[in-house]
Amino acid sequence: xxxxxxxxxxxxxxxxxxxxxxxxxxxxxxxxxxxxxxxxxxxxxxxxxxxxxxxxxxxxxxxxxxxxxxxxxxxxxxxxxxxxxxxxxxxxxxxxxxxxxxxxxxxxxxxxxxxxxxxxxxxxxxxxxxxxxxxxxxxxxxxxxxxxxxxxxxxxxxxxxxxxxxxxxxxxxxxxxxxxxxxxxxxxxxxxxxxxxxxxxxxxxxxxxxxxxxxxxxxxxxxxxxxxxxxxxxxxxxxxxxxxxxxxxxxxxxxxxxxxxxxxxxxxxxxxxxxxxxxxxxxxxxxxxxxxxxxxxxxxxxxxxxxxxxxxxxxxxxxxxxxxxxxxxxxxxxxxxxxxxxxxxxxxxxxxxxxxxxxxxxxxxxxxxxxxxxxxxxxxxxxxxxxxxxxxxxxxxxxxxxxxxxxxxxxxxxxxxxxxxxxxxxxxxxxxxxxxxxxxxxxxxxxxxxxxxxxxx
Length: 457
Hints:
With 457 residues, the protein is α+β, with helices and mostly antiparallel strands. 46% of the residues lie in helices and 17% in strands.
């Protein structure tokens, strides 16, 4: 059974409108029908009152007459297509049913759809019945030989006039529901368009903006979104320019420092000074690598261009991963276990894939004790890449912050243990560029287990 909470806001709104209109229409129909019947009863009693008082004036009905003088003969009032008679038994008569009453005078209707007004004669156990005559009578209408074949057909059982009220009620419901649902549908379409624009912006399309043709109050929401989008885009552009300018500006003094260190080392024979100069070279190498990582991270977080997809290439994943292992010389430091499906291919930008795999392998090499396990397999509509090591693992309180830039678990600046703090951030950013997902958990081997899901759909 479908729960209302699982339905969308507009679906529930449509259902509420339909139920409300049907319920209110049905109640209105029965109230109007009741009012209609009562009006007919009042009109009929008003008409029969005229006949009743005329009968009294003509002494055709004597209120204080003896019971023995009364009879049950039917008397026609031909000029009015009406008849009257005295009944010595209480109503109802002729299998009639009561419609209502007006001024204590009950009105009945019989099977021939004739009205009967019942007047209680005072001081007597008798009732005056004023009824309608048959308006039409045809010769031989009860004769089977003259029976109309159309009247005995299936359709003769029904009359359009019997369903006039229901037809009117249905027309009113359709008109009201149509009149209300149309503006709601327009509103729904505009809300869905705003949601789609927001989703595209969230996926990196920072050029998209809301149109100006939204109706109130959605136009204010669209203006707010556009203002927010412009602010975010300006901030991203400023950060991108800043991140790209700083490494360029830093490289020049680093080169000069490296040149000065080389000149000092050439004619220097002091062992202690040579060690210090060697450390300076190491720091310069760290700075150069950090600059490269900052530039790479900055490029991954820039606004996506429309030409990004043109760089996508179908890549055979197994040879690609094996080539990165050889280039990074991971096998020289640790035991590498590969569980790779050799048939898997994935269409993406090779630069993004390289950044993802290289940084995951570098991170595993830094933290692994002796073993690194690489798994690649296909599951339903995605390819799963797993890189895990047998290192110390990641404390549970740091699992949510591991991909934040410079959020290193090892606060040491020792390159061998702490890293530079951007590798996993670059991996995560590259994964997002490929519309994939990167997560981390602790492995059964005790170390970290990074799982990347490449979406094939």
